[in-house]
Each structure stands twice: as structure tokens, then as C-alpha cells.
Amino acid sequence: MWYVILLAGGSGSRMGAECNKVLLPLLNETVLLRAARAFVGLVDGMIVTVRPEDEQAVRDLFARAALPCPILIANGGSTRQASVWHGLQALPETCDKVMIHDAARCLVDGQTIRRVMASVESRGTGVAAIPCVDTVKMADSHERAVSTPDRAALRAIQTPQGFTVELIRQAHLRAAQDGFLGTDDASLVEHMGLPVQLTAGHRRNIKLTTPEDMLMAEAFLKPAQGLPDLRIGQGYDVHQLAENRPLVLCGVTVPHTRGLWGHSDADVALHALMDAMLGAMALGDIGRHFPDSDPQYKGISSMLLLSHVARLMAEHHAWVANADITIVAQRPKLLPYIPQMRQNVAAALGLPLERINVKATTTERLGFEGQEEGISAQAVCMVQQM
């Protein structure tokens, strides 16, 4: 089982901010939430280490985001090393592999994370790093250059840094025993006399420390050429009304004399939404992913299928930015149930409520919807991919 420890216990002193720098907005999202989203779909859960004065703000942030994985909060320590140790103590017993990541590196990409994970799986360690491009000098106390290391052998170290849980816990215990304070997690393993495997990082995986770093991050997030990395998806579905079936729409069972016929719960609104999401990512449709010939989907809740599609998108480092669903039905009146429908969809997609719209309309008794033979739904969504 994989977890990531997000280190968010810093301050905004060098940033010149009045709050923790990871709580600052970067374009339309906080630094911390951007960092967390990078790991969604790749890990089974997250530990976020924070200062006591920031704990409530961080809890509120993740409650609104509703990311589709467990988020645990741990107290940060007086040093980075202490914060990591607190995070390690908070890991569930079933977790055997962990990545440690500075939340201020919110531009980390999925390929870098995957390379770190693959290295841990095969070698027990994996640390993101990039070659040094500048000449580095060793200086004395008077700021005089005394030597020039070979640049070809130098690496600039980034995060995430990944380890087996057993190894990094042993490294922390050994460091505490020896009174050793390392500059990063890899240095603790090196202190034990063990090698650490480096993997390719990314030059955009910068650590936000100064206001200039924020400007650089904004420049990276705003494509200099071409269209922004946004996709639009459109979905449509229809189901026949039938006796002795529940009427389920956006996860809400609506009282009615008849329900919708289908292999699953026939939630026509969610089916349209899932098709829109899959279409935006060119991943086919729900018939391809959940065929009605497969008995495992017999009577299944479409809310579960929606969560599966959300995880699939997360694996492609994409998420829904907003969605608009239209349900076409002559009866019953759906207005009283729409607030719960919106809440269900928002929770499944990890979005604020204001990003989800559900509306219902009739056809003035025209067509199969107007004759109450069936119900149709249409959905449109905007998808953002990192």
C-alpha cells in the first residue's frame, strides 16, 4: 500500500506572506491542494503535516475538495525531520511504501511520481533529481572559492523521495540515536551507509520559496502557446420506464410509480455524465468500461461507477472542473431532489458544490419523454489535465 506524506508545516516568511505559503492561491487553486491532486489516483492515501495554527484551515480545505482518497492530518515538528517522523507515525499499519513530498513543490508531474514509485518497487528507494547545469564552487568562511566539484557528478535533489516504510523508519531511528540532522530524507538513509537510488525529476518541479518562484510557477501553468490543457465532454443517455423498478437519478431514489430499466440501477443522469467525462479524455464510453454483458455490474449503483471513472481520470492526471446535467422527464417533479443530486455528484468528483449543476425539464408532452415512455439526460463537463 502506498501513502504520500505532504510536508505543509512551513511558513510564508521568505515568501513575504502573512500565512503559510502552501495556503496561498496559485491561479485558481491553493498550492497545497495542487500538490495533493498530483498524487490522486497514484497513492492509497495521504498524510499532511501542518502547524497547529494551520490545522483547521487545512482540514477545511480538504473537506471542500473531497479528494477520492483518505486524507490524515499530523502535527508538524520543529524541523523538517521531525515533521516527517510525525507523518511516518501516522501511517496505517498496512502501508509498506511511502513517498515524502514538499507541498511547496506543487508543480510535480505524474511521470516523476511514477518513476519514483517504480524505483522503490524495484530497489527500495527512489529520489527525484536533476543534473546540475551551473558550475558549483566550494567556498570558505570568507566567501573565497576553494574548489570546483565535477559538475557531471552533481545532482540537484527534489521531492518526492520514496522508500519502503521499514527502511525510512529505521533511518529516522538511527538518526535520532546518533543526533544526526539531515537536510532531506535520503541523507538519513545515506547516514546508515546505504545507497539511495536517484530517478529523473523535472525542471518545472520547483520549490516555491520566494515571490519570484510564484511568478515562475504561474508562467509554467499558463501555456505560452496554443490552447490551455482543457477538454470538453458531452454525454447523452436514455432509459425506458418500467414497472417494479426504483427511479434513481444522480444517486437519489425518487418516489415514483415506475423506475428506469437497465442492467445497472439505470441512473440515466450519471450515465450521461460518465460518458461526458470519458469522452473528454477520449476514453470511449460506459458501454466499453461497464458492458451490460458483465454480471458484476448487474444492479450496481451508478455512484460506484462514477467513482471508478473519477479514479480512471485521476490516473490520467485529469479531473472535472465543472459539470452541467439536464434531466428530461415529464414526471415526476424533480426540483425537491436536485440539491441532494448536486451534493452526490460533487462528493463523488471531489468538487465544490458550486461546480456542479443539475436541472430538470419537460418536453411539454412531446416525444417519448413527454409520453412518459422513458427519461433522457444530457451532460456537459469541462475537464482539466495536468
Give the strand content: 25-35%
Gross morphology is: elongated
Structural classification = alpha/beta
Low-confidence stretches: none
- Largest sheet: spatial strand order: 5-4-1-6-10-7-11
Give me the number of helical elements: 12
Determine the N-to-C terminus distance: 24 Å
Alpha carbon gyration radius: 25 Å
Query: Which sheet architecture does the biggest sheet show?
Result: 7 strands, mixed
Order of helices and strands: EEEHEHEHEHEEEEHHEHEEEEHHHEHEHE
Helix percentage range: 25-40%
The total count of strands amounts to: 18
Mean pLDDT: 92
Q: What does it look like?
A:
With about 375 residues, the chain is α/β, with parallel strands linked by helices. It is about 30% helix and about 25% strand. The chain contains 12 helices and 18 strands. The protein has helices at about 30-35, 55-65, 80-90, 110-125, 165-180, 185-190, 210-220, 270-280, 285-290, 300-315, 340-350, 365-370, and strands spanning about 1-5, 25, 30, 45-50, 70-75, 95-100, 125-130, 140, 145, 155-165, 200, 230-240, 245-250, 250-255, 260, 320-330, 355-360, 375-385. Strands 5-4-1-6-10-7-11 form a 7-stranded mixed β-sheet, with helices on both faces. Helix 5 packs across helix 6 (about 185-190), helix 8 packs parallel to helix 10 and helix 10 (about 300-315) packs parallel to helix 11. The chain is elongated, with a radius of gyration of 25 Å.
